[in-house]
Amino acid sequence: MNSIEEIISKLKSLANSKNVDGMARFGISAKNTLGVSMPQLRALAKKIGKNHKLALEVWDSGIHEAKILASLIDFPGEVTEKQMNKWVAGFDSWDVCDQVCMNLFSKVNIAHKKTFDWSKNKKEFIKRAGFALMATLAVHDKKSPDKIFEKYYAVIKRESTDERNYVRKAVNWALRQIGKKNHALRKSAIKASKEILKIDNKTAKWIASDALRELDS
Question: Where would I find the H helices in the chain?
Fold first, then answer.
């Protein structure tokens, strides 16, 4: 399976309207959505194999599941900053945002740079991507020193008053994952959470108190 036509045809053959309805209940738009499950997408990606050029074509189809599939078949080493910025601008749901960050962007060598760039963006899903990427790097980046992750606390604190649901949940996710990375970061994440808790804002207080419940346990 090595052509865009074959891949789109296969995706459409897997369409499931009941899944689309179920996804809508979790805040995923039905627009350009087929209802293909993640296990099906991963199985399809395995058949296709890694192919950067094809990944770009699959993404450009605009189909919801195709965007996730593109992140599964792309080569991180061939992903450019221009591509990352183009794709993040096309995020229109939290699942595409999170899957692309987990499957692909976290493995690109400028991932840490993009967290800082995107976390200050005003658009909801681009900002979410900044924090989803932070959370994913906290789990999968085994090489970067703690000081890299400690730099994120100031960003987390700065954006902790953003009340938009998909942003605040991602900010909280990033804070918790950094704190779970190791003992030293757990201590510093708890300290950062207590500082955020002092902010006179209900969203900041929720982000901090929820993180503390997990990190203090």
Answer: 4-13, 17-24, 38-48, 52-60, 64-73, 81-89, 94-103, 111-119, 124-140, 146-150, 152-158, 165-179, 183-197, 202-215
Q: Which residue has the tokens 């976390």?
A: 119
pTM exceeding the 0.85 threshold for the entire prediction: yes
CB contact at 8 A, 11 and 34: yes
Task: Identify the structural domains of the chain with CATH numbers, from first to last.
Answer: 1-74 (no CATH), 88-217 (1.25.10.90)
Question: What pLDDT does residue 173 have?
Answer: 98
Q: What are the DSSP calls for 62-112, one per residue?
A: --HHHHHHHHHHS-GGG--HHHHHHHHHT--SHHHHHHHHHHTGGGSTTHH
CB 45 within 8 A of CB 72: yes
Q: Region 9-29: what's the mean pLDDT? A: 87
Contact 208, 189 (CB under 8 A): no
Give the count of alpha carbons within 13 A of 113, CB side only: 7
